[in-house]
Amino acid sequence: MIIKSSQKRDSSHPKKAFRESDENQSFHVKHRSSEHQQLVFGMRPVLEAIQSDTQIEKLFVQTGIDGALFQELRAAIREKNLPFQMVPVEKLNRLTSGNHQGVVATISPIRYHSFAEVVQSLEDEGVVPLILLLDHITDVRNMGAIVRTAECAGVHAVVIPNHGSAQLNEDAIKTSSGALLRMTICRESNLKTVVNLAKQYGMQICAATEKGATSYLGVDFQKPTMLIMGSEDTGISSDLLRLADVRAALPIRGEIQSLNVSVAAGIFMYEVLRQRKIH
Question: Could you tell me which of 264, 255, 254, 188 has the C-alpha nearest to residue 232?
Fold first, then answer.
C-alpha cells in the first residue's frame, strides 16, 4: 500500500475524486502541516487505512451518511474501537476540499504500543518500571507538557485511553518539544484492565490525588510503579482510585487547593528519580 503526500493543486484543475469502485486505489493523504498530522479522506482510503493498522488519531464521519461501503467502514471502526465523531458536512469541507465522501481521518506519526507487550518487555529486561497512566487528560498543552517531562525523567511508557483524551496532534507534539515522537505511548480501550495487568506484574499503583492520605514523600518509589494522574476537572476516576495501592498527595499551602496536572506530574516523576538516585 502506498501513502502519497499531496502536492499543491492548480486551482484550474479540480482534484481527482475517489470513487467507491476504485478497489485498488492508494491512500490519498493531505498534510495538515509541514511536519506532523495528516489527513486521509474518502471511504475506501479510510477503510484501507483502518484495515492496514495505520495509526488513526480521530475519525470525522458525516451525519446521516449511509450505504453498503459505509456499513463496512462502520464495522471496521467498531472492530478496532477507534474514536470517531459525527459532524455536519460543513466540518468535513473545512478539513479538506477533496472528495471526502463523508469521511475524514487524521493520522499521526506517533506509533502506539500494546501495554501488555511493553510491560512484558520490561519484565524480560529486568527493568524496574515506571509507567505513567493519564486518566482522561483533555488539554492538549497539559498532555504535551506531561509527556515532555516523562521523557526527560526516564518514564518507560505513558498510557492513555482510546476515548476522552486529548488528541496527540501537532499542538501536543509541539508542546512536548517532540517528546511524543520519542516516548512509548500505549493507547488502550480499558484502563482498569491496564491497571490490573500492572498489578499482575508486581507494580504498586500510586494514585496522585489531593485527597490522598499519604504524602508523596512517603511513597516508596523504588518499587516497580504505575503512577496515575487524573483529568483536569474530575481527577482520577473512582474505578481507578479503588484499584490504587496508595493515594498520594502534594502539600498545598495556598488558597487554591490543587496544582495544574502537568506541574503535579512533574513533581511526582522527579521524586521517583530522587529516590532511585538516577542522575
Answer: 264
Assigned C-alpha cell, 31: 498534510
Q: What is the dihedral of CA 169, 174, 177, 180, to 10 degrees?
A: 0
Let me know: does 210 contact 252? Beta carbons within 8 Å: yes
User: Do the two domains 23-107 and 112-276 of this chain adopt the same fold?
Assistant: no
Q: The pTM is what?
A: 0.74
pLDDT tens-digit series, residues 176-226: 998 998 999 999 999 999 999 999 999 999 999 988 999 999 999 999 999
Task: Please provide the size of the chain in residues.
Answer: 279
What is the second-level CATH architecture of the domain 23-107? 2-Layer Sandwich (3.30)
Query: Cα separation of 274 and 259, whole Å?
Result: 21
Residues 186 and 158 sit within 8 Å (Cβ to Cβ):
yes
Instruction: List alpha helices for the chain, DSSP H.
Output: 43-51, 68-80, 89-95, 115-125, 140-153, 170-175, 191-200, 238-243, 261-276
- CA proximity to 232, closest of 202, 253, 204, 260: 260
CB atoms inside a 10 Å sphere around CB 23: 8
CB atoms within 10 A of CB 90: 9
Identify the residue whose cell numbers are 511536519: 35
Per residue in 242-275, pLDDT tens? Answer: 999 999 999 988 888 788 999 999 999 999 999 9
How far is C-alpha 159 from the chain's CA centre? 8
Helices 140-153 + 261-276 axis angle, to 10: 10
Is the pLDDT reported for residue 34 higher than 80? no
Q: Would you kindly state where each structural domain of the chain is located, as residue ranges? A: 23-107, 112-276
Task: Write out the CATH class of domain 112-276.
Answer: alpha beta
State the amino acid at position 123 in one-letter form: E
